[in-house]
Amino acid sequence: MTWGQLDALASHTSADVAVRELGLAERSRRLLALRLVLRLAREQPAARGPLAPVDEAWNVLIRAQREAPAEISAMLSDPQLGLWTAHALRRLRDTVENDPAPIWFHVGQLHAFACAAAIRAAVPFRLTIPAWDGNVVLPTLGSAHVGGGAGWGTAEIVSDANGPRVESAGATVAVAPNNTDWHAFRYFRAIDLELRLDDAGPHRGLTGLLPPEPLTADESARWLGLLSDAWQLLTRGHESWARELSAGLTSIVPRPPTFRFRPHSASVGDGFGGAIVSAPHDAAQLAATLIHEFQHSKLNAIGHLKPLFVDDSTLDAYSPWRDDPRPTGGLFQGVYAFLAVMEFWEQERHRLRDRDRDLAEFEFALLREQTATAIDELKGRRSLTETGRRFVAGVESRFARNSSAVVPDDLLRAAERAAADHRIGWRVGHVRPDAELVRAAVAAWAPGSAGSSTGSPVRHRRLDVKAVLARVLLADPADLKTTRDLLGSTAQVVDGAGEGDFAFVAGALEEARDLYLAELSRPCDRPGAWAGLALVLDELAPGPASRVLVERPELVRAAHSAVALTTGEAPDPEALAGWFAEQTG
C-alpha cells in the first residue's frame, strides 16, 4: 500500500482503487492462512478425525483452481474463509478456550471449501466433510439438513455424471437451486456488485459457532428488495460509497430485526468484506449500515498492512457511541465508521422532506458532535504510530469539510443535548471520583460518621436513551406516548429509559426535573437520571451546581450514594452539587 492510497482511504477521495488493493491483500492473506492450516494439520493426527487426510482435500482444491481459476479466486473473497482459517489456526495452536467442537470439525472446513470449489469448477470428486447436528454447509453454495442425530458427524459430498449431492445415512440431497431439500444461498446481484446472504456459515457470528438459520422465502424476498432499494439510493446519490462497496463488500449475515432506532450490526477483523446486519427498517438505514460496516473492514485490512497503533488493550477511552470504555483500536474504529455515516446523512438531509428530513438533520448533527469529540480523544492517544497519526490527520481534515454546515436550531439543540447526555452518563458510570472529596461530603452531610464510604458501584446501562427517544419523537410524536406507555412492561422497547427521559425529550423540562428528583430521592445508579438532571438544571437554573453536575457528575453521584448508605436518606442532588461547587471553586 502506497502513502497515496493510505491518504485516499483516510480522506475518502478516489479511494475505490485503494479498496481493491486492500481486497487483494486480504485474498493473499487468506491464501497464506490456508497453507498454514494445511501444514499444521499435517503435523497433528487429531486434526484429521474421521476425515480424509488434508492433502486429499488440498488436491481437490488444486484441480478446481486449474479448471476455473476465476471462480476459485472469487471464492477467496468469502469472509467465511478468513474467519474459518483464523479460528482453525488458533485451535491448531491450542490458544482457544471453551470451544465444544472437535478440532477436526474446524480443519474439515478445508474439505468443505474444496468441495464447493470443485462443484463450481465442475470437477468430479468424492470427499467427506464435517456435519453438525445433521447440518452440512458448502461455502458460497448453501446448506442442507441430512439427519444423523445431534453432535459432530460427517457426510459425503459427491460430484459425478449425476450431479453434485450430499450423501449420508439419513438422506441424499442434490446440490441444486431448485431442490427444496437444498437451501441455496440467496444472492443480490447488480452491476459491479454481488452480495450473498449468509444464513448458514458456521463462523458467521461474533463468537463461537452458529448453526444454519435459513431465511424463509418471505424473509429472503424482503432482504433482496431492501438491498435493491439501498443500492439504488447509493448509486444515485452516494456514488463514491457505491464504488467502494462494489470493490470489497461480498456478504451479509442477516439477523433478526431489532427496535427501529437500535439496529444491530457488526464486523469481525478476519472477515474482510462481510457484515452482520439486523433486518433493517428501510433502505436508508440499510445503506448507512453497509457503509458503516465496510469502514470497519477497511480499517482492519489497513492495520494488517500498516499498523495504525501499537498493541493497546487499556480500556480508558471515551467513545460517544459506546457504553463501555474503549482501547485505542475501538475508538479508531468508531471514528472511522461513524464519520462515514455522518457524511451519508449530510447528503441525505438535502434529498429528504418533512419528518424524514428532520431525522436526517438530527442524525447528521448528532454524529458531527460525537465525531468531533472522538477525534479529539483519538489524537491524544499515545499508542498511535506515525502512520496512525498521519491517518488521523487525514480523517480530521475530511471531518472539517462539514464542521460548519448549518442545521436548524431546534434539531441542532436536540443533537447537542443527546451528545451531552451520553457523555455525562458515561462519566457517571466510568470515571473514578476523587475519594477524599467524596469522604468530605459524607462527613459534612453526616457529622460524626466515619465518612469512609465512596458509594455503591454503578451498573452500566444503555447511555443512548435520550438520542433514541429524540428519534422516536421526530419520526412520529404519537409514538413517543406509545413508547412511554410501555415503560416498565414486558413490551418495553427502549431499555434503560426512565419517566424523566420522556418528559425531557418532549420539552417538559420542569416535569422532567421533578421526575428526576423523585428518582434520585433514593440511591440511584441509572446514569441517564443523573445526566438528565444535569441537563435540566443547566437549562432551568444554570449556575455552579448545574456546572458541577454537567462537568463532574461522578463526584455528585458517588457522594449521593455514600450519604444514602451511611444515613439511610439520600441528600438533595442539587444541594450536594452546590456544596461541591463551593469546595472546588
Helix content: 55-70%
* Strand adjacency order, main sheet: 8-9-10-12-11
Number of domains: 3
Uncertain ranges: none
The computed structural class is: alpha+beta
Task: Using the alpha-carbon principal axes, give the shape.
Answer: elongated
Mean residue pLDDT: 95
Protein name: HEXXH motif-containing protein
InterPro entries: AKG_HExxH
Characterise this structure.
With 585 residues, this protein is an alpha+beta fold. It has three domains: 17-187, no CATH class; 217-407, no CATH class; 413-584, no CATH class. 56% of the residues lie in helices and 10% in strands. The chain has helices at 3-11, 16-43, 54-67, 69-75, 79-92, 103-107, 109-121, 217-237, 239-248, 283-305, 328-348, 354-379, 386-400, 409-430, 435-445, 465-475, 477-485, 499-506, 509-519, 527-540, 544-551, 553-567, 573-584, and strands at 125-132, 135-138, 142-145, 152-160, 163-167, 172-174, 183-184, 186-190, 193-197, 251-255, 265-266, 274-278. The model has no long low-confidence stretch (mean pLDDT 95).
